[in-house]
Records
---
Amino acid sequence: MDDPPGHEMPSYRPAAARTGRARHNYPHRLSVAEAIVAVLEDEQVPFVAGIPGGGVVELLDVMSRAGSPRYVLVRHEQVAVHMALGYAELTARPAVVLVSRAPGASNAVIGVQAAWAEGSPLVLISSHVSSKARGLGAFQEIDLESLFRPITKMSVEVRAPERVTGTLQEAFRVATEGRPGPVHVSVPLDFPAIEVAFALSRPSREVHGRLEPSPAGLERAVALLAACDRPVIIAGGGVTKSGAAEAVLELAEELGAAVTNTWERKAVREDYPLATGGIGRGGSGASAAVLHEADLVLALGTRFSEPATEDYAMAFEAGQSLVQVDIDAATVGRVYPAEVGIAADARAAVLAILERLRGRRDRKLRTAWRERVAELVKGWQEEIYAVDFDAHPISSPRVVRDLRRVMAPDGVLCSDSGNFNYFLARYFTATSPGIFLYPAATGPMGCALPAAMGVKVAFPDRQVVAVAGDGGFAMTMQDLETCVRERIAVVALVMNNFAYGNIKLRQQVHFGNRLIGCELSNPDFAEVARLVGARGETVRDPDELVPSLQRALSAHEPFVLDVHVDPDEMSSATVDPWW
């Protein structure tokens, strides 16, 4: 089976080998700034995002003269990193974030920690104080190497000009090998102008291909899968990153297994008959039911996070077997003991399991289990759709339902963090893999718009919608101007209830309705959009939703829809038990 578009398994190969094109014939000696840009060109970096500063402008000058990579000036370093994260999540390839020393680098931390938790490859290049002033308490001097070490796969300060080229090449390899993630390289202020001998060479530890499962682990897993009666598959982020979604559904069909997605992931499409929806906080009741009734659970590419397990309330009982597959061996068996643990790429493992299952003669149809799964899904669907979609003010389920109806099947939705997110989980049915993006491992507010920008750069012909609450949208809405200037035609849909919804709900339920620091006085977001040159509309009537959404999705320019939803209607998933 071929990888679906945009989900090729990341493996570190020379850029020339990826495309078949020859490398440039660079001079034997270059300035460090020229050498850095040459590496970025060789790696076919799609864009460099950031804000200028000391040690950055030298690189910008070289990129301008070279004509590549594309430089995207943003209004905050957080936006640059989340933009790179959005690009990486849908392409498995790293973009580059370029920031100045302490203030600029520190502003990037929130995005880098999200990329670290998500396993998203990106390369952060920061400037640093001059090597001659290092350790003297120079202007804006902090230990950047140590700052980023806990939230990157590699954080290094280059100590010699001639080491810059090799270090950057190693950074791209590390970012994409195994479980992907961010890397950080800092370059002292006095290095860019220094001339060095230059040559492009691959790191000696170049890695090819997938991490294959062990034969012994496969045989034990297949034996359990063949013998079970009520199998359930949990598909996590590793399924998306390895391009395993279609193979997972083939395996589900072979087994008659229910398929759940992990919390806010939507790794496999949810219109599949055996798909039961998400697990965890605010998850599907059908998913909770099948997991309670299962005799075997196959967990693929999931770390069993706190929200995915509803604060670790989810448990496997006696008589339930767990087979866990993850590319990170340290993850396997960490939260729940696994009867069989396999450290491998999800797609490689699923294809190997399928091959072995199809060769067995003791295949079970599991008709009764298939019927039970369908019954549970039907009951859950009837429960969540028993709401008043015509209510005034506009209900959040109505917004999400109408968005799903008018949005293209391959359109990408980038979600921010907030109470509205639980409505997206329930009512936005994923019709293909990889179209729902949310950094669920960290849930940073303000991530949706910049992530959508990165996705739109990768796929300019696809519909890309950023859905955010009013609180999250206001954190990064300044970069609507970036969208206009760079002609990044994303749609920003603001679920505006004039509050931090999750906080408000908790205070209502647990703190005697004493509301402190949760209610907001917002500007007219549609007018804000128009002020920076984007288009904007305010929607207050449910019957206006579809026409407004259609205008926004068909526009070839940035578009903000400020949808005023019922401020008294919030998802109780924040406080209600799922498990």
---
Amino acid sequence: MKAFFRKMTGTVALVIALAIPLTACGGGNKDTAETTAKTEETVTDDTTETAGDPSTEETTVETATGEPKMGGEVVLAVAQEPDSLDPYLAAAAGTKEIIYNFYEGLVKLMPDSTFEDCLSTSHEVSEDGLEYIFQIREGVKFHNGEEMGPADVVYSLRRGAGLDSADGTPLIGELGIIDTIEEVEGENAVKITLSEPDADFITYLTAAIIPEGYEDQAKQPIGTGPFVFDSYETQQHVKMVRFDDYWRERPAYLDSVIFRIVPSADSAMVDLQAGKIDIFPYLTMDKADLVADKYDFIESDSNMVQLWALNSDRAPFDDVRVRQAMDMAVDKQMLLDGITFGQGTILESGMAPSMGEFYNKTVNETRKYDPEQARALLADAGYNDDLTITITVPGNYVIHVQTAEMIAAMLAEVGVTADIQSVDWGTWLNNVYEGRDYDSTVIALTFDYCAPSTVLGRYSSTASNNFVNFNSAEYDSIYAETQTEQDHAKRVADYQRLQDILSEEAASVFLQNPGVQTAVSKELGGYTTYPMYVQDMYNVYFK
């Protein structure tokens, strides 16, 4: 029954015995020459090895303008107030951008979408996929000066898996599959036993390792990462400073980093033009020319799926004909051109191309923009120019507000009136995401892990984060099979079929996989993009 409690998270991408390589997402990043070196090695022997050892691999390369130098402070803009600095309680994507620099897991996601041992030095997997043994890295210190050991790993993962909680509910849903975690007697190692095989399990072990018994993470986070938490001022900033005892071959280049919380894209642009922000990860193409003299621009793929989410538990969206009509009424190419200036990929289902072979390319050949057919479907469902709906949208995200406005204009063409309700982020989280009290909403979902289950698990009818209330017996059955399927080709085919179902039944109106453009000061080098929503400041330096 433990699998019942697995909660697929999305914040909003192995095993030798299962013939799965030590990779997850297949999408590449379009980085500049100042980003990280990439490796393409995979597992070839009976012990699952990584593609490289982050303790010895120097990833930053010199630029034409000078070598990296130590020191300096960088200001990076973030769009969200942190919800919790505790890595096991943080839900907002904006929070995870920041705390990525505080914490590390047994494995680490690399920029080229591979996973490498991090706080472990190697790991082995049993033939049945149920047992994992991790050799724990020695000489790693926490920010409080204490040395990390197997007991800290056991404590952290037991906490995440809910093994010590009163009701057994995991704090990180994907870890709910863990049955036992124990130290290996006489070795600097930890053994994890699962209740059932999960080919994506290795990707979940990016989960933070924290000191045994430490309970003040939310206010004074302590991890093993390259930066130490310094201060947090509400609605202002989070500041971190370099951890000089960091375990890799060198500490971070920068003295400190300030994550400035910006109330809007407009205010961020003012600060950008004034040179008060060094890195801005959300720049739109229409604003690039305004700051081209001071910033370089890095384009990358994202792990986001922007969608117009339809609440299937509420009329009229409990009728599949209405949901299909909404999908046909939206001109997605116009949205892509008008909102993200052509940056991104149009979607017809809930997975982004960055998931590589799991992504169903053919699903985008299904339903197309067809307002006349949309009218016919609405009439068949009993609506003849008399349907009014509400689109609730978080007002701090300009891209979602503008998308909602364009959708409302398109719906008017098929006789549907859409009232747009703009709310603050906290209200959206409480009422829409958690309370499911809404008609429809526009949002972008991001995913904590480069694993297909974390992307598509949220549409299982029992998933706690299935906030669109999608319910399909066929979907549930196939999804359950994917979690234990040992044949890799079969898993790929099943995940692609799940995307077909989401499209056929219009679980929501899937819009686009937005491209991401980051403005980086011309004085900086080493900025790196990842196939997930993080800001890695370890290799950033002043030239």
---
Amino acid sequence: MEKTKEDLRRLLRRIDGKGYKAYKDIQGQYACDDFELHIDYVQGDPFASPSRLRVRVDNRFPDWAYQNRSREVALRDFLARQFARCIRRFAKGNRGSGKSGGIFIDQPGQEILERTAVVLDGDKLEARFQAGLPAFGRRIAGQQAAAILLDELPAIAGHSLFPEPLDEEVLLNHLLVNEDADALRSHLDGLGLVAFVANGALLPRASGVDPRPLEGGLPFRSPENMEVDIQLPNRRLTGMGIPKGITLITGGGYHGKSTLLRAIELGVYNHIPGDGREFVVANRHAVKIRAEDGRFVEKVNISPFINNLPQSVDTLRFSTRNASGSTSQAANVMEALEAGARALLIDEDTSATNFMIRDHRMQQLVPKEREPITPFVDKARQLYDELGVSSIIVVGGSGLYFDIADRVLCMVEYEPQDLTERAHEIASAHPQDRANEGGQDFGALPRRVPIPESIDAQKGRREKVRAFGIRSLQFGAEEIALSAVEQLADNSQLNAIGDALLYARKYMDGRPLVEALDQVMADIEKDSLDVLSRRKEGHYAVFRKLELAAALNRLRSLRVE
């Protein structure tokens, strides 16, 4: 017989004042007026991780709200945001010890990501969230629990998961912006572009820790000769198209070079209306590359950039537990290429100088036979000509890249100017005396085979995986440092990546690393992020294979053949 909200009310009355473990009695499913309440897991005490709950309602939204993948993802994102707003509006918060009384749902940021906080399951919508079941000390506060589950929760669900209370115009705009951003990104390859920045975009952020747009920031305007006009499903856009090949972003300090690159690197994701970067998009396989002193590297072929190390260190299968700036940047490039990168995004401010350039004077002082490093300036052209991998590079201190650049953008007070012709004139008038050290071809990409036993999340008697913001991931006894993986945008991506590393072991059966990760991504595409866990997890957000590979490559227990 199906349990009802009155059954839940009686249960809470019966266990009121008892020891906290008696809360286990309320696990199960309850029919409420407009929704089903699923109490999937009850925490062990009021100081433990909150209990996991789900609300399922009939999907009353019109077909246009989820008629394609872009709109469905945007609808779910919008409803998760609305659920979070309603928590702040209707939930009274703390009611006793520990996390008592709190209701928590995965809170989206500036990006629109597919996430498991709200899912569309056939003709049902399901919100997944957590609640701190209230107690005084370790005694159940049954009346307060009834208020949360039977008064506050119906108000939250009623005002967030049904179309009637929502502003249809605001919802529609959310869907159309996401749909157009997806369409815009899908046009890039056909237009020969690696990125696009719409006229009128607002790129500067409020601060380094506040990702909202800077109030009073200057709207972006493309150089006329780089303007591209694109018809999207719901609007027509004009903006700057950055072509495939090698593009330099230069200019004086504080004129917006890194701000432009940062907007492009986050253009692998869509953004909410009002963010300012709604129509700044990049090739979905673009990767930010930087130096990363101290990182772990496991048998990566870095020989295209570093060779002939002292003591005959093997750079075809280079390993270290404490990489230098240049070796870490070389490894980051090669691992990104192994994982399928199609564009590299590099800022000189976060790069190792000796990885980026080596001028004529230094070549005279230290001849090539005594210099293991081949600078990126001598490999970028090979990368594009041989592998079709583009580069967008921020440079402000050296003109060595003028010779290889297909396009040179100069930022002047946050406005780009196309100075390609002038840069090439300067290069012709002041030819480099330096020798190109890049060799005849780019070199071989890594093709490594992971050993599944090395991906071990065991800590004590159980596996332990826990994300800390977007900076690190506890994986068993190891901490995976991810602060240098700059395209991670959401803590829930790390939650999903941690479990995806565990899930990936089933495909580590002698196949190359990239093929195992391809299979993980294919399973997620086919069966959703839910494939990563046996339970109904509400704190996952979609990630790219490139970030999954980055996390695996930084796992210090990783071993490969």
---
Amino acid sequence: MLKKLLCLMIVLLIPHILFAQGSLLLVGGGSEYSSWADDPYGWFVQAADSGKIINIDADEVSNYYPSYFKSLGAANSCEAFRIATRQAANDSATYKKLISAKGIFIEGGDQGDYIKNWKGTLVQDAIHYMFQHGGVIGGTSAGLAVLGEVVYDGTGGYLYPDKAAYNPYHPDITITDDFLNILPNVLTDSHFHPRGRLARLVPMLARRIVDNGQSDLMGVGVCENTAMCINKDGNGKVWGDASVTIIYKSDDSVIDCQPGSPVTFTHIVFHHLTRGAVFNFNTRELVDPGPYMQPVTDYQIDNNFTPVTLSGVEDSSNSQGSIVIKGITSDDEAAWQGKLSQSAGENKVPNSVIINKLLWENARNETYYYENRWVGGMWGIADKPGYRAIFLNGDKDNSQFDAAAEISDQGILAVKNGIVYILDTNEITHQCASYTRTGNRATNYRGLVNARLHVLKAGGQFDLKVQPTSVPQDNKNESRKSFELHQNYPNPFNATTTIGFFLSVTSDVRLTIFNSVGEEVATLASNQLSAGFHQYTWNAQGCASGIYVYRIEADGIVQSRKLILLR
């Protein structure tokens, strides 16, 4: 009996063990006919052991991919294979062809067609077989969209950002969650910044969390001419010219998601990763910041606010911040080509970049300045910890999209109409002062790690005052090379707070909490950790209000910081 039970356990465990054996290539769309693509697609060929790769589509297939894969070292047997009907998808010959390869690449097209024609067929089985047996699966655009556990399937109609932003239950939001499911707890999106898709990813994420209780769901947005290569250990490395955006709910998030109303979603963890950065999808930790992002150092903050009203349609609102981004409407690829510029603002709203007309004003004329506005705001704050980028929607032709906010002399932002997005860098762990595309071509893209995004609708408020954090003096000497301990967030806090630190080398780590009389009240970590960013949440249930100290011991060095618990 015991032997049978053990055998049954092994059988049940095998799918879960094998599930982690494959590798993934996530491509955000764009053109592979340029040098940015050689690194990620070359990685794809290597992950396929330089063997046979088959690119598939439900519509017309591209004969470019087989020759491209072969030029990168893949086998001469690479081929393009169209699977246009469920009958073809259920043909045993199709299954045998697909599993004869070492890699399967799903082209861009229509993810609805893939789900309609391939879901529940031998094609789906073949992709699972390939991945579970160590093969590599890739996809670009629509091919990327179907790789996550949760898929925006596009069967309801094309989902423009404004539809989702102003109604998270819009009929064009249609979801499939029982297709490939190769990347668990992930909802992907492509062509991310050029098409303003953050504004649709956030509502879809919020709705899924509220309706399905999937609080650990993570949104991954990949820009054009950019890819993320995820190895068998779950480490995803960014390649290409733009960025990968990763967002997910934090313990402090507040979500209000209702039909017919903009969503409220605060304290969203926001990582904006540039080329060379490595993020682990299993632990949700930064493994390597890459060559462009550096750890945060000391910074000073100005909290002297002047009362002001901001409008989503008046360009004068942009000058109220401390920095003004110029050149947004000069060229729809200005941010991509590094043509934006900065100048000093009136500083009525200190520590800020203000961007109006975020999504709508130019969408009516089909001139896409989404990218310039969103990327421009990030560019203005990416090397300035403690700053906020404030984005206001605006449309002169439709007043329901006209965002308006009032800011008091105490720094309280109150949303009066529309939607306001606030990207907050007060707790970032890594900043980016410079970044160039492949071949050192200029761009205004920048990286951020551990920022917070707040999405607010009418009636929402946000405190813009910044409680500046400071890198301790003992972090500024040579010990800084071993690790960095960051300020907890939020601080002060009520119930839970998160403590982050960065290790430059694998170390034995002990992270502990002490009360004001030196008694140890909690041990959050006491084990060996790999190099990279780590964070732990302290639940202070049962502890009294007061000042506490958290201390880290690593690599023979001790550092500590204070935190404040308020009941």
